[in-house]
Design brief:
- It is a single chain.
- By secondary structure, this protein is mainly beta.
- It is built from no helices and seven strands.
- The model has no long low-confidence stretch (mean pLDDT about 90).
């Protein structure tokens, strides 16, 4: 682990892509899910945002970000499975929802729930 922040991150993520594949026997082309990054240290961050509209009714939304080493390439349209082992075991499945903010020691990737490959 060359990045000192990674020692602080307790979550782990695995990144999957859907890649084109041709069956050698049938010669049919389809898509297969391929694990491209495995057990990468990360930090999952949740932020709750409350806004009030004209009716004085609060609207609550949740922003989710994934913090990763800036060296990790996360392709658009991929599936990201994040696991947290402590204090309780949890697992979330997300997709990247926008451009990553890349900084010297980390990158921040906005996430949305994974609803399938596009």
């Amino acid at each position: 682990m060359g990045n000192p922040l990674e020692r602080l991150w307790k979550d782990r993520c695995t990144i999957y892509q859907q890649l084109k594949s041709t069956d050698p026997q049938t010669k049919l082309t389809g898509f297969v899910e391929v694990e491209t990054i495995t057990d990468q240290p990360c930090k999952l961050s949740f932020e709750t945002i409350t806004t009030t509209n004209g009716d004085h009714v609060d609207t609550i939304a949740q922003n989710v970000k994934l913090f990763l080493s800036p060296d990790v390439i996360v392709p658009a349209g991929c599936k990201i499975v994040v696991k947290r082992l402590h204090p309780t075991k949890r697992e979330w499945i997300y997709a990247q929802s926008g451009e990553a903010g890349v900084f010297t020691q980390h990158q921040e990737i906005p996430l949305v729930p994974f609803r399938g490959y596009a």
